[in-house]
Amino acid sequence: MKEYVVKDVKSSQFNLDHIFDCGQCFRFKKNEDGSYTGIAKEKIVTFSYDDKNEELWIKGSDEKDFFNIWKNYLDLDTDYGAIKNALASKDTIIKKAMDYGYGIRILKQDLWEMIISFIISQNNNIPRIKGCIESLATNFGEQIISQDGSKGFNMPTAERLAMLTTYDLQPIKLGYRSKYLIDTAKVVSENGLPESDEQLRRLVGVGPKVASCIKLFGMGHMDSFPIDVWVKRVMNTLYGIEENDLKTMTNFAAETFGEYGGIAQQYLFYYMRTYIK
DNA sequence: TCGCAGGTGGTCG
DNA sequence: CGACCACCTGCG
Fold first, then answer.
1. Which of A222, A248, A224, A221 is nearest to A235 (CA)?
2. Under a CB-based contact definition with an 8 Å cutoff, are residues A31 and A274 in contact?
3. In Å, what is the separation between the CA of A188 and the C1' of B13?
4. Per-residue pLDDT for A277 more than 80?
5. pTM above 0.70, yes or no
6. What is the mean pLDDT of residues A143-154?
7. Residue nearest to nucleotide C10 (CA to C1')
8. Percent of chain A at pLDDT above 70?
């Protein structure tokens, strides 16, 4: 089995638990040894991190794949230390959240997969979102086999989903989101992937929150600041903004976190969801 | 039984 | 425009 080792990956800037449990990614599972296995970029891959030697081990990748795919996927060229310093100097609450959730990175994920995933995420809970996404892949995605023989499924393409009916999707248990997905698949298979906020918002089932997640995780908009129930709680309890005043929250984030709003959001989300509750 | 979970679209005023 | 409200599904 091919495996590639990345040296000198700073432990203060890389933590698998924090990366995969901050709500950005639904297709990776933790193994007993602490590594994470999942499917991304149409490949089955396992990430292990040795924090003593500051080495990242990527099983299922050779050197070529690392430079072509995973380096970018893991956003390894971005200096998160510098970003954290910039954010910490502006606000002491975000500093605490960043100390707690150190090592979060924003993954550069596939846009179409993000569109599907976050349409499914609405008014839903994380275990069920993960179940729906896996079920969608195993039922309608293309099978892939890794070098060591393990099998998995890619997410179905827009073209594939566009041919389906809500009846076909019944076993996936998407509920009322089925028709959002099919409708969106039709638009994307006809017009191509959205390239702007306006095009994104034209998709059925994509409101402000979902669009904001898609931009952050699938389009590289690091300033995008998704406001979900957890971030609302942070904004309310830690920053004292009135509970449902989304406008003030958005403005506050833009002024305080600016171009790194998305990174701040991930730390705040993780902090609130796993530490403060 | 009922509210809630990483919201959104439709309908009113 | 802003404030409701129904909505699939599964869990506590």
1. A248
2. no
3. 36
4. no
5. yes
6. 95
7. A128
8. 100
Three-class SS string for A31-74?
Answer: CCCCCEEEEECCEEEEEEEECCCCEEEEECCCHHHHHHHHHHHC
Write out residues whose CB is closer than 7 A to strand C.
A 123-125, 127-128, 170, 173-177
List bases, strand B, within 7 Å of protein CB.
4-9
β partners of residue A153 = A143
Tokens describing residue A73: 């996927």
Residues contacting A232, CB < 8 A, separation 6+: A243, A244, A249
Checking each nucleotide's C1' against the CA of A25, the nearest proves to be: B6
Beta carbons of A87 and A80 less than 8 angstroms apart: no
A178 CA: nearest nucleotide by C1': C8
Residue A128: nearest nucleotide (C-alpha to C1')? C10
Span A230-245, pLDDT tens digits: 999 999 999 999 988 9
Orientation angle between helical segments A229-237 and A246-257, nearest 10 degrees? 80
